[in-house]
Design goal:
Strand order of the largest sheet: 1-3-2
Distance between the termini: 13 Å
Shape: rod-shaped
Number of strands: 3
Helix content: over 70%
Radius of gyration: 22 Å
Number of helices: 2
Structural class: mainly alpha
Largest sheet: 3 strands, antiparallel
Length: about 110
């Protein structure tokens, strides 16, 4: 039985793998920001129910909702771009190295 040995990725390929990983990390951070904004929105809505300053709070709620909508649209676009880049990179790496798995931390490829 043949031994499968890891191959070191070329620098450009390793850099491209790291870029995708960084983009995925940014996506996770954006999810957190959206969650935080949703919590802030919920707090403002609860305040509105029991407040005398309804007009001011309603305006703040509108601003938060607009912020959330803009962030969501931007995040959806960023996710689609990242997915496209990831697919293109996977095809490129498969062409160069064959079938297998990538270890992004070590910058190595392990063939199947």
């Amino acid at each position: 039985m043949a031994v499968r040995r890891a191959k070191k990725l070329k620098k450009v390929d390793f850099d491209n793998v790291k870029i995708i990983q960084q983009r995925l990390d940014l996506i996770d951070k954006e999810y957190q920001e959206l969650g935080d904004a949703k919590l802030q929105l919920t707090k403002k809505v609860n305040m509105l129910i029991y407040s005398e300053y309804k007009a001011e709070l309603a305006q703040e709620i509108g601003k938060i909702e607009l912020y959330i909508d803009k962030k969501k649209a931007s995040l959806i676009k960023f996710i689609k771009e990242t997915d496209q880049q990831n697919i293109a990179l996977a095809k490129d790496l498969q062409t160069k190295y064959g079938e297998g798995t990538i270890n992004p931390e070590k910058g190595t490829f392990l063939p199947k």
